[in-house]
Amino acid sequence: MARFPGVDYISFDSLLSEQELLVRQTARRFVDEQVLPVVREAYNSGTFPSRLVAELGGLGFLGANLEGYGCAGMNNIEYGLIMQELERGDSGLRSFASVQGALVMYPIHTYGSDEQKEYWLPRLQSGQAIGCFGLTEPDFGSNPAGMRTTAEKRGTQWLLNGEKTWITNGSIADVAVVWARTSDGVRGFLVERGTPGYSTSDIHGKLSMRASVTSSLHFSGCAIPESNQLPCAKGLKAALGCLSQARFGIGWGALGAAMDCYETARSYTLARRQFDERPVASHQLVQEKLAWMITEISKGQLLAYHAAKLKDSGKIDPSHISMLKRNNVSVALECARLSRDLLGANGIMDEYPIMRHMCNLESVKTYEGTDHIHTLVIGERVTGIPAYR
Prior knowledge:
Blueprint: H1 18-45, H2 52-58, H3 76-89, H4 91-111, H5 114-126, E1 131-134, E2 150-154, E3 157-168, E4 175-182, E5 185-192, E6 198-202, E7 214-225, E8 229-234, H6 236-271, E9 273-274, E10 278-279, H7 284-312, H8 318-342, H9 354-366, H10 371-383
Parallel strand pairs: 1-4
Antiparallel strand pairs: 2-3, 3-7, 4-5, 5-8, 6-7, 9-10
């Protein structure tokens, strides 16, 4: 299988340190050698390539930007480059890593007790345990404040009742980070697989994110001990803080899908000959599409790089992450559509990755804050007026 040559029109690599380049090269090699040979079949069969989990852990890619407990302690540029390469392989694999690191390990690391951290983080980092994040409900996606899942204190236990849905990793997770309404506001809890009153069911019939496990979580009189409450996870703001971590990774990851589509189209149009045996790439309309794609990818790289610098310096705002996620996912989706157009009928074939990326990106545009919600976050930032209702 051919090695991915990379996409760097503006000498973006000159901004990266030797260590950052090494991290990206390691992730790139992993995707080329381990992911691409299996991902087409995984997508077609609707199965998650679970054997890759241990590999991700062994490379330090799970919770890569966290400190301690076996985590790699990478900076956010390195973390972003990992997400970029994983999504170049498939959005489902990047989603797994995002959920594991940003939505499960991060809340335990940030809001958990010492005992919770010491027990779960090494297991999650290595891939020995898998986690999921339970916030979205059947009736409340963009408005998590309306959640109906409740947790009621009963002596030394909490009783959970309710349902979460569209949960990545749900049925394969050893532990779920679950957000529920209590008499003291929204709180976070760790619910372990096998707890009585806790069950999962997979969502079938997906035409997107097929190489990813998507589930519903059900709680009926689910009793968990007081020690499973995240002691510092108080209020909906704590849950939204986790989403900011994941959205940052999505902003980088979408570039990987865009790069794969662009490079597929560029290579194809150079090799494909029509009209007096001229390369399709010699035509003006084709070059206009390639020029648009490489320009927008390059702008997206700079946005992602600056956001990572802001994050490392502690100066990033959730509205910055909204711009990153909204812009780069939109660019990636348009790159997929333009690339499909440039490949003609071949663009719909699974021999090429374009339709798989396109279908996946339709979900990426929606989850962890829809394009519209991030538009309103940016709008509130520039006007001071919330327009969500």
